[in-house]
Amino acid sequence: MEKKNIDWANLGFGYHETDKRFVANYKNGNWDEGTLTSDDKVVISECAGVLQYAQTCFEGMKAYTTEDGHIVIFRPDLNGARMEDSCRRLEMPVFPKERFVDAVVQTVKANAAYVPPFGSGATLYIRPYMFGSSAVIGVKPAEEYQFRVFTTPVGPYFKGGAKPITIRVSDYDRAAPHGTGHIKAGLNYAMSLYPIMEAHRQGFDENMYLDAATRTKVEETGGANFIFVTKDGKVVTPKSDSILPSITRRSLVAVAKDYLGLEVEEREVCFDEVKDFAECGLCGTAAVISPVGKINDHGKEICFPSGMEKMGPVTQKLYETLTGIQMGRIQAPEGWIKVVE
Ligand SMILES: *Cc1c(COP(=O)(O)O)cnc(C)c1O
């Protein structure tokens, strides 16, 4: 198969239309079979549930080429299960996780020419999503839905090495207790746009959100979970019902325990103890781990000993081991790598 003529190394993180996308429709209580289509346009009622009351959720994952030339996806079954959870909480029909994985695989296969070659650092980003497509004017769930999967090639997350970022403690909340923080709902992102733009305007890369009820515990950023390393080498990651369960974070926890023999604590993390940690990173599909060098708490700075030049040593090891597993250099745990072709 001939690859598209794309300057992989210089791609950014943006939408670049590919050949095919998967579309399935839910009507009269059932999902249809779904199909691949070349049509990139969505046509829905002007009164669609998604447009009026934001009834939509999504997933994000990557397909990439391994060292031995296979196209693979990392743990798509977990994305499928998480999307089921998102749908239930938003009164949307579940698209079964087995069918989700099949739709993702079909879409990636159909766009194989856009999967960047091994070594380019680029990947094919996969975006499954669902939305209420039929008209609703009274506040209630839509009766019809569309599930779609599109792909878009994206460039290397870190161009020229992973430089630590600076984040600020946000005065805004990301998720209410018993709210929707644990699901990947579009609405969680809509309301995060103002705080992230404000953070950028003030010169910060990201927001650290604290728990909305007490503002004493670390939750996550707008799109990534935290992982900390203590001065004696333990990995600590916040536990909360209002955090989005990152698949990258769950995988890093397994890597820390089973591959690196590190002690891992998944527990509530008080903001007060953050100043005593040795390393801090943000984890999510896009970057795997983004090192945090500095946290600004209303003008008071917490500077991690790992500094502003490079990742801390434990973060680095976690990063190398997980990306090694993803790229096929290190034996993956059973079921982690889905081979597309
Ligand atoms: C998607 C997302 C993450 C990262 O999850 P991954 O499965 O690791 O990509 C973390 N936090 C939020 C709020 C997210 O939406």
Automatic annotation (TrEMBL):
<comment type="pathway">
    <text>Amino-acid biosynthesis; L-leucine biosynthesis; L-leucine from 3-methyl-2-oxobutanoate: step 4/4.</text>
</comment>
<dbReference type="InterPro" id="IPR036038">
    <property type="entry name" value="Aminotransferase-like"/>
</dbReference>
<keyword id="KW-0808">Transferase</keyword>
<dbReference type="InterPro" id="IPR043132">
    <property type="entry name" value="BCAT-like_C"/>
</dbReference>
<keyword id="KW-0032">Aminotransferase</keyword>
<comment type="similarity">
    <text>Belongs to the class-IV pyridoxal-phosphate-dependent aminotransferase family.</text>
</comment>
<dbReference type="InterPro" id="IPR033939">
    <property type="entry name" value="BCAT_family"/>
</dbReference>
<keyword id="KW-0663">Pyridoxal phosphate</keyword>
<feature type="modified residue" description="N6-(pyridoxal phosphate)lysine">
    <location>
        <position position="184"/>
    </location>
</feature>
<protein>
    <recommendedName>
        <fullName>branched-chain-amino-acid transaminase</fullName>
        <ecNumber>2.6.1.42</ecNumber>
    </recommendedName>
</protein>
<comment type="pathway">
    <text>Amino-acid biosynthesis; L-valine biosynthesis; L-valine from pyruvate: step 4/4.</text>
</comment>
<dbReference type="GO" id="GO:0004084">
    <property type="term" value="F:branched-chain-amino-acid transaminase activity"/>
</dbReference>
<dbReference type="Pfam" id="PF01063">
    <property type="entry name" value="Aminotran_4"/>
</dbReference>
<dbReference type="InterPro" id="IPR001544">
    <property type="entry name" value="Aminotrans_IV"/>
</dbReference>
<dbReference type="InterPro" id="IPR043131">
    <property type="entry name" value="BCAT-like_N"/>
</dbReference>
<dbReference type="InterPro" id="IPR005786">
    <property type="entry name" value="B_amino_transII"/>
</dbReference>
<dbReference type="GO" id="GO:0009081">
    <property type="term" value="P:branched-chain amino acid metabolic process"/>
</dbReference>
